[in-house]
Amino acid sequence: MNSTWLNSPMAEERGRRPGNPQTRDSILEAAIESFVTRGYGGTTIRAVARAAGVDPALVMHFFGSKDKLFEAAIHGTMPVALVIEAIGGDEEHLGERLVRRYLWLWEHPVHGPKLAAVLHAATATPAAAELLKELMSRELLGPIAGTLSHDHAEARALLAASQLLGLALMRYLLKVDPLASMPADLVAAAVAPGIQRYLTGTLSLAEIAAAPR
């Protein structure tokens, strides 16, 4: 066999991984790693392809654009199902269950860094923020609101989520003390009552029904 051909670009392209589901998973894993370590702005299609051992055209074939790749990475990064698991049960203790599960995910050695990467990207890039907003509204806030028996369930779920996002920003991204160094159990005990109030307490939300959309 001609050794020159073995070193040619055509041989390299033919040696790349074919477009199968395993290849898509490899691309997604490389993308998640890049978004976690380099952020949204520092991630490129070409770099992701290189890390996955495929041609950039194959990344585009599977995902279409960097935004779609980031959306898929969010789905692969955000442990939505683990949050939804905490919804089941009585409404009286829903706030505590959500806060404790939320803190557990952020403290987790695998989930935590990925959540930080997604939140950091959302605060730095409008496109990433829009993707995260759509995902949260569809797959997290909707299910939470659907479990509430009180009025203005969507607004209640959103108010609770705003507090949880603020908690993550101050504790895990900005690392503001003493919040950043407080034991997770102590944080949960302090935050859960406020979240519970948003979900099931008495709130002045009557004007929401008449507000323009």
Please tell me about this protein's structure.
Residues 44-63 bind DNA. InterPro entries: Homeodomain-like_sf, HTH-type_TetR-like_transc_reg, HTH_TetR, Tet_transcr_reg_TetR-rel_C_sf, TetR_C_16. This is TetR/AcrR family transcriptional regulator. The chain has helices spanning 3-6, 9-14, 21-38, 45-52, 56-63, 66-77, 80-85, 94-107, 111-124, 126-147, 153-173, 184-200. With 213 residues, the protein is mostly helical. It folds into two domains: 3-76, Homeodomain-like (Arc Repressor Mutant, subunit A, Orthogonal Bundle), CATH 1.10.10; 78-208, Tetracycline Repressor, domain 2 (Orthogonal Bundle), CATH 1.10.357.10. The radius of gyration is 21 Å and the shape is elongated. Mean pLDDT is 82; it is low at 1-17.
What is the subunit arrangement here?
single chain
CATH level 4 superfamily of the largest domain: Tetracycline Repressor, domain 2
Total strands: 0
Rg over alpha carbons: 21 Å
Number of discrete helical segments? 12
Measure the end-to-end span.
Answer: 69 Å
Strand percentage lies at under 5%
CATH architecture of the largest domain: Orthogonal Bundle
